[in-house]
Amino acid sequence: MVPNEGSCAEVALPSERRRHISAREGLIDGGAAASDSRRRAHASITEGAALNQQKMYFPLGFPIRIVTNHASVLAAADQSWSKFMPAFDRTPLEILIEVLPDPIGMRVMPPAPTCTIKGGLIVQEADEHNFVIADLHAGWAVGRVSELTARSHSYFCYHLLEGTVLSMLATLHCVPLHAACVQIAGKGVLICGNSGDGKSTLAFAGARAGWTYVSDDATYLPIERRDRMVVGNCHKVRFRPSAAQLFPELSGRRITPRAAGKPSIEVPTSEWHDLACANSTVIDAIVFLNRGSDDEQQLIPRQASSVCDWFKQHIIPSPEFGPMQEATLARLLKANVFELRYRDLPWGIARLQQLAENGI
C-alpha cells in the first residue's frame, strides 16, 4: 500500500525504466552527441536518487504519485492539485523528480522547454539541468530540476509538471478537448473554438449570470465510460489581459509571468464565493463559437461529421490508444452540435440559456 503523503523509504528507478530511458537518449540529444554534463545528468538519474518524499494527488480526479527529494516539488503540486478529490479508480501514474543544487552562477530561470514526442515518449527539456522524460503508454515519468526551478512554482508547474501529467492522462485515461465547459439548467454544454474565439469569456460571463462553471479552455473526456461525462479544472479561470475591459473585477490584476506562451490573468474561482463550480458534468450540447460573422446572430445546427476532425487535432497520436480515443470521441459526438454566430455577449448567454431550457 502506498502512503498518501509524507516521508517514505528512498526510491530508486527500476532497472526496466533505466533501460527504457537509456535506449532513447538519442531522442533527447536530437541525434547529436550529448554534452558531458548532460550525459552525467541522465546517467545519474537513471541510476536512482535518494527520493524520500512522496504524496498522492488527484488531478481531474485521477490518482498520481509524486516522489521527490525536495519539499518545493510537493508544494508546487499542492498549488496545482490539492483541491481535486479522487473520482476514478485507476492505477496511479507516477512521476519521480530529483532536485539538485543550482549550478554555480545560475541566477535566472531557464528558457521555456522544448517538447519532443517520439512513439510513446515525450521529453520536456529546458536545459541540461531541467528536464522531464515521460512514457505516455506506461504512465510514468522521471525528471531533474534545479532548486531555482523547483522553487519557482509558476514556471515548474506550467512548463514541466502539469504538462507532463496532463499528457499522460490525455493518452491513458482521457480524450483532451480544446473547449470550455459549463452546466446550464442542469445540462452540460461544451463551448468549442480556436484560441481567441472567446471560450473562457463566454463561460465566465455565463457563470456570473448563474451557470455552473466547469472549465475554461481545457476539458477532458474520460475513456472507459458509456456516457458523455467530462471533467475539468473548475478551481481556476485564465483570461487574456483584454478581458479586464469586460470584467471590472479583473482590473489591476497581475499578469501571470511565463517564459513563453500567451500572457494571461489567472484567478482562483474560490475568490468569487457566489460562483457555482463543478469538476464534471454530462454533455448535452456542443457549441462552436463564431464571433467573426457579419451574419444575423443565431444558433444553427451542425453535423457531427463536420467537427470530428477538429476534435482529433488535439489528440496525442498513439497507434496503441488511438482507436479507443476515437471511439470515446464518437460517443461524445452523439450530442447535438451547434454553431453560435454572435457579436453581443449578453445575447450569446441568453441564447444558450434558451437552448439548455428548451432544447432549441
The secondary structure category is alpha+beta
Radius of gyration: 21 Å
Provide the succession of SSEs: EHHHEEHEEEEEHHEEEHEEEEEEEHHEH
Strand content: 25-35%
At the fourth CATH level, what is the homologous superfamily of the largest domain? P-loop containing nucleotide triphosphate hydrolases
> How many β-strand stretches?
19
Number of domains: 2
Q: Helix fraction?
A: 25-40%
Provide mean pLDDT, rounded.
86
Q: Please give the count of helices.
A: 10
Classify the fold: give the CATH topology of the largest domain. Rossmann fold
Low-confidence stretches: 1-42
Please summarize the sheet with the most strands: 9 strands, mixed
What global shape is seen?
A: globular
Calculate the terminal CA-CA distance, rounded to whole Å: 51 Å
CATH architecture classification name of the largest domain? 3-Layer(aba) Sandwich
Which terms summarize this structure?
360 residues, nine-stranded mixed sheet, 28% helix, globular, disordered N terminus
Short description:
The protein is α+β, with helices and mostly antiparallel strands and 360 residues long. It has helices at residues 15-23, 25-28, 36-47, 71-81, 147-151, 153-172, 199-208, 308-312, 322-332, 345-358, and strands at 5-11, 51-57, 64-68, 93-100, 114-118, 121-127, 130-135, 140-146, 174-177, 179-184, 187-192, 212-215, 219-222, 229-232, 236-239, 265-268, 280-290, 298-302, 336-341.
